[in-house]
Amino acid sequence: MEMQNIDTQIKELLLTNTSLDFPFVKRTLEGLPNKSEALKKNLQQKLEQHLLGFAEEVSKLQGTDRYQQCCQQAKAYLKNWMTYIEEVPLSQIKKLCKRTHLSFLDIGEDFITPTTLYAYAQKYVKGQDAYLKKLSLCLYTHYKRLRTSDLSLPKANLLAYGPTGVGKTYSVQVLADVLGSEFGVINCNSVVQEGIVGASLTDVFAEIYQRTGQNLAAVEQSVILFDEFDKLFYSGTYNDRIINELLNLIDDNGKATFSTSYYNSKVSHTISTKKILFLFTGVFDQLNKARINGFVSPETKTGKKEGTFYDKATREDFLKVIKKREILGRINDFVALKPITPAILKEILLGDSSPLRSYEHFFKLHNTTLKVEEKAIQKLASYAADKQLGVRGLNSLLWEILQQDMQQVQIPTETTESRKLCIDLPYLKKRINH
Fold it and tell me: Mean of the pLDDT values across residues 15-28?
């Protein structure tokens, strides 16, 4: 196992050392299986030292012609790797850039496509492939419009609908982050709540403006998500002022005005929304109470959201809820998200981005190895699905289960014995409230 691990580590170091001569790298990889463990460890140390030296050099070259040469060299190196060895996913390129101090967008521009973005998002969000495909294309066209300064390229505002806690917002956050786009969320439920005097859809722009060090250009190129978008159209919360404000924002030549505080006074800013990508998410359970595509939703007969027709809602079905063609005319595409199943939750718990990883790290800091048996994983997934906790609820569930043991940890010393914490079915039975 150790030999396999060191082979993997050397391969990763060879990939990351983009300043190396590629023919040498190819020969090294081909001869790696025949090397002794001692030679492999020696090679690993040399590659680590070379990488540290290269990263230190790059950190001093920012903004120079030499830095651009390093970027071009890295792109050529990666293309050779993909031609002669194997594909390199965006997640690996991002990791490479972090270790070498090269900008991901400077390197990744030759490798970012709708397909590679989709593959990247799949590492973080499970069970929502249809949504991730459409979202990846929307974010890609947004990225390309900004990167090339060509606003004649197509722009697609997407509406995603489905249950809560299935990754609608998180998916956007993941893709916006990898593309270096500022991301803001408008909570439509908060905007329409009574008692919030003067709440505006444009408040999010003030947040981004402050977060980016008062960078108006960053605000004008951001990705904005209208969360709980359907709440704007409930009969008890419908507000003409907010709807008109919405139309002005998402218009092809839209404008937005927001205020920020400067000492004791208010400063007003007006921006163009032409470059902003707008996304819309919500449950839209009103669709389940209506006739979808000429059929009665299964919910009206069984009381369950089976989603057979709900998933196939058309633009005309949404018109029954949103009621304004002007709004629908500015939304290019629609996609339904699936309910989270036990199988999806199990895959999430076992994956690299599992919420379990943070708890494993916490216990490791306190000289404790956390192990969760497979049957316990299955039980957690089934319980979370049955209680409709969603993906976000997994972390709360793990906190509830593990907090007693977390409270009992101690700072390890030289004499502290390592211990193991095993989560099995009897353990869960004591911790989960049924």
Answer: 95
Look-up: residue for tokens 């993909």? 82
How far is residue 407's CA from residue 4's CA, in Å, rounded to a whole number?
A: 37
pLDDT digits (tens, 9 = 90+) for 202-233: 999 999 999 999 999 999 999 999 999 999 99
Residues 6 or more apart whose Cβ sits within 8 Å of residue 408: none
Same domain as 357, residue 251? no
Residue 33 covered by a domain? yes
| Tokens, residue 306 | 């089976």
Residue 42 in any domain: the answer is: yes
Summarize pLDDT for 325-337 with one digit per residue, the tens: 999 999 999 999 9
Instruction: Please enumerate, as own/partner, the contacts of 111-115 that have beta carbons within 8 Å and a separation of 24 or more.
Output: 111/78, 112/140, 112/143, 112/179, 113/140, 114/140
Q: Which domain holds residue 404?
A: 342-433
Beta-bridge mates of residue 420: 369
- Strand 295-296 relative to strand 265-272, pairing: unpaired
Rg over alpha carbons for the chain, rounded to the nearest Å, is: 25
What angle, rounded to 10 degrees, do the helices at 390-407 and 342-350 form?
A: 50
DSSP-derived pairing of the beta strands 291-292 and 183-187: unpaired
- Contact between 357 and 398 under an 8 Å Cβ cutoff? The reply is no
| Calpha distance 83→328 (Å, rounded) | 44
Give yes or no: residues 163 and 64 share one domain: no
